[in-house]
Design brief:
The complex is a heterodimer of chains A (186) and B (181). Chain A is an alpha+beta fold. Chain A is built from six helices and nine strands. In chain A, a hairpin with a 4-residue loop joins strand 4 and strand 5. Chain B is of the alpha+beta class. Chain B has a six-stranded antiparallel sheet with strand order 1-2-3-9-5-6, with no helix packed on it. In chain B, strands 8-7-4-10 form a four-stranded mixed sheet, with no helix packed on it. In chain B, helix 1 packs across helix 2.
Chain lengths: 186, 181
């Protein structure tokens, strides 16, 4: 009896393993490939505006008429500070982890300002939280840059979306956004 | 070449895992809209234990998931339930989307998309939105019909007002076939 069930049970476990492996790894590999083809050789921790013809292929809520700025985060070396200069109009800033999960979002009405900074750092793992020593002066180490967000992965994506209500304003909106920076702070 | 029974079981197990993963990812991230038979909503619910499937659905196509600050609706049929066809003309009509910004698109999911946004559209006096979707220009709002297959209409509401999140109080627009060539 046991001998008869060996191969069907093994096949069942192998099927489950294939299923999980595909669901967990294939989408992020395919997404990373698409990201490279859309952003070219864009450096990490640098803010840039995407070409209108390709931005909707990355950000589904955007159209070719909108402006989309992106920063490919790399938190391996430490903190990254995203300093935004945004126009006085509707905009949304979203931060995604490497796996594609949205971890932070803010818009013009929530921010209430056209200039702000977000300090991004890698979140401590559960093991680090349990085994790590308490950092008594942690509060003192936080620089007063604005808001803070913890990213679960080593990499992530910051997306700044600005719709353009009048094509004649596009140049002015782009000029306002170009002073936005995304820099590693070590 | 002869396969032993064990090898056949292993191959079929792996194949079943691959196919089921593909199908699960294909269906995830799309949920039916209450009271709206033809529309589906693309979304990622972070509280859902199967979030990894929903995120994978978008990532596998190279997209970031729709942000939580947007409502993302799509459909590929007209009001009669027939698949949208490039050789037909349609009317997209309903109340103006209740959001700070919106866009309506037609195309397939990857390319050949034409778009009308809140900045381009003309609303009627009673706050109704009507768009002609056709190969040739139509009076009022017009979306050029792309000559592609697998057509779908997408309505994106960015920063929706609270009322827009309830399909009972704010029905989504209809897509009615006008004629076919």
């Amino acid at each position: 009896m046991m001998g008869r069930l060996f191969w069907p049970v093994t096949a069942l476990f192998l099927g489950a393993a294939f299923h999980l492996a595909y669901v967990l790894f294939a989408p992020s590999i395919l997404f990373h490939r698409q990201l490279i083809s859309l952003t070219g050789n864009a450096a990490s921790n640098t803010f840039f505006l995407m070409p209108p013809e390709t931005q909707a292929k990355l950000v589904p809520a955007a159209t070719a008429k909108d402006i989309v700025g992106v920063c490919l985060l790399d938190l391996a070396q430490g903190k990254v500070v995203f300093s935004a200069n945004v126009p006085k109009s509707l905009w949304t800033l979203s931060i995604y982890s490497q796996s594609g999960q949205q971890i932070y979002s803010i818009n013009d009405s929530e921010a209430g300002t056209t200039s702000f900074a977000i300090e991004l750092k890698r979140a401590k793992t559960f093991l680090q939280q349990v085994t790590g020593k308490a950092e008594p002066d942690d509060a003192g180490q936080i620089q007063n840059v604005g808001w803070h967000a913890d990213v679960n992965d080593r990499q992530g994506i910051v997306v700044l979306w600005v719709p353009v209500d009048d094509a004649a304003r596009r140049g002015a909106l782009e000029a306002a956004l170009k002073s936005t920076t995304c820099e590693a702070k070590g | 070449m002869r396969f032993s029974t064990g090898t056949a079981f292993l191959i079929s197990g792996a194949l079943a895992g691959y196919v089921s993963a593909q199908q699960s990812l294909g269906r995830a991230g799309l949920v039916p809209v209450a009271n709206e038979l033809r529309w589906q909503q693309a979304r990622v619910n972070p509280k859902d234990p199967y979030t990894v499937y929903a995120i994978g659905h978008f990532s596998a196509d190279g997209f970031l998931p729709p942000p939580a600050t947007s409502l993302f609706y799509l459909r590929n049929t007209d009001e009669d339930g027939n698949t949208l066809r490039a050789e037909c003309a349609y009317t997209f009509a309903g109340a103006a989307p209740q959001s700070r910004w919106w866009s309506v698109r037609i195309g397939n999911s990857l390319d050949a998309v034409t778009t009308l946004t809140a900045g381009d559209a003309i609303l009627s006096g009673d706050d109704q939105l009507k768009i002609g979707i056709a190969r040739r220009p139509t009076p009022g709002n017009w979306l050029a019909m792309p000559q592609v297959s697998n057509l779908q209409v997408t309505l994106v509401m960015n920063e929706p007002y609270p009322l827009a999140k309830n399909a009972k109080t704010t029905p989504l627009p209809t897509v009615q076939k006008v004629e076919c060539e």
